[in-house]
Q: What sequence folds into this?
């Protein structure tokens, strides 16, 4: 799995951080998404997929390898 985020699309809702804090974080100054792990281990895949689905701005892209 490969994960990418489109920071300009992010609306800083924080749902991704709540669901997968090992993979996503937010910048302190504006709450925008920070990708911590571009290739997360398998145990985090379900959370990453859910984060992409619930992202209100569709700013998370997941590519299955």
A:
């Amino acid at each position: 799995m490969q994960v990418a985020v489109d920071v300009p699309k992010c609306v800083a809702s924080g749902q991704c951080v709540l669901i997968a804090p090992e993979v996503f974080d937010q910048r302190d100054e504006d709450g925008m998404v920070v990708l911590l792990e571009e290739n997360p281990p398998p145990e985090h895949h379900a959370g990453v997929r859910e984060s992409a689905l619930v992202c209100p701005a569709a700013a998370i892209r997941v590519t299955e390898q």
The chain has a mean pLDDT of 97. The longest strand covers residues 2-5. The chain has one domain: 2-57.
